Amino acid sequence: MRTSLTSELTGGILFSRKMTGEKALILILLLLLAPSCRKTTTFDNFGGFAQGTTYSVTFGSNGSIDPQELKSEVEMILKEFDLSLSLYVDSSILSKVNRNEDVQVDRYFSEAFTKSVEISRLSGGAFDITVGPLTRAWGFGPDDYRSFSESKLDSLLKLIGMEKVRLENNKVVKTDTAIKFDFNAIAQGYSVDVVSEYLDSRGIRNSLVEIGGEVRAKGDKNGVLWRIGIDRPEDNNNMPGNNLQAVISMKDRSLATSGNYRKFYVEDGVKYSHTIDPRTGYPARNTLLSATILADDCATADGIATACMVMGKDKSVEFLGEHSEYDAYLIFSDADGNFQTWSTESLKKFISQ
């Protein structure tokens, strides 16, 4: 869906606000004031629309790079990215693969596919890009048409599983032509990585890239860590920043948040979220309301956040205990419906309420 972005300078903090239904959203808090006792770097920022949502880039270059020139280059990259992995671009490689056309994949598709195989294996199948037939059946596909019925479940589940697909000579091989991919749970995170790595190639060492609520931070802002606001996962909390649950400070890491409180529908009194459990075929239903994951790259953070939403709070805590390479901040509801939080021990000192 289309989104809007407004930015306002208030008390030395730039609030970057946006709205989207795909992900649990976050508020980027960019500290603009640096300590006066040290040499400061001049930072520029720009933003716009991409992938049906908003994006923002903040970078330090002391004026050596024209922000408008860099914006044009970034938007060209994002357009190329959409031509590879967007479900909403009819001519994209992904759309052609889903239609079983004879097409060679590019590096974006190949890298996203490879990363998806890795995360699917790590999560025990809680993350799976072959979930496409299920997301469409439940009404969360490009056309929003719902066609799910209990009688179709077994046949749909036969189309799910990373073992049913592979890349061979830059082409996708499927065991069934009805298999369809959906990269939505990893694509925005991966696009953040692509843009951030492009900034690296331009010699930019301190930057913050955000697309659709997924973030990659490089360096810091004149000695101050980047601060990322995490929204309270309330159904009526549609304006990021109005009601924060916490703020996470970070550098040289990526962060992605997934939740079920902004994209869902209610039918016959039952709430159906857009996060589908590929193992059961049903929308995930558990007490976990929001999962924020920190990892070295944003594609991984994005995919693991989705996997946690599928696994639920207890299984997520168990999983994260076995994978110390990730940090996490989970928001869940207790037996009385009250919000509770859990975080990895190493992240606690970087969290402020």
Describe the structure.
The chain is α+β, with helices and mostly antiparallel strands and 353 residues long. The protein has a domain of 82 residues: ApbE-like superfamily (T-fold), CATH 1.10.3980. Helix content is 26%, strand content 29%. The chain has 8 helices and 18 strands. The strands form 4 sheets. It has an 8-stranded antiparallel beta sheet. The chain has a 6-stranded antiparallel beta sheet with strand order 1-2-3-10-11-18, with no helix packed on it. Strand 13 and strand 14 form a beta hairpin. Helix 3 runs parallel beside helix 7, helix 6 runs antiparallel to helix 7 and helix 7 packs across helix 8. The N terminus is likely disordered.
Distance between the termini: 31 Å
Query: Mind summarizing the main beta sheet?
Result: 8 strands, antiparallel
Biggest sheet, strands in spatial order? 4-5-8-9-12-15-16-17
CATH fold field value of one domain: T-fold
Task: Describe the global form.
Answer: globular
Mean pLDDT level: 87
Q: Helicity range of the residues?
A: 25-40%
Provide a count of the helices: 8
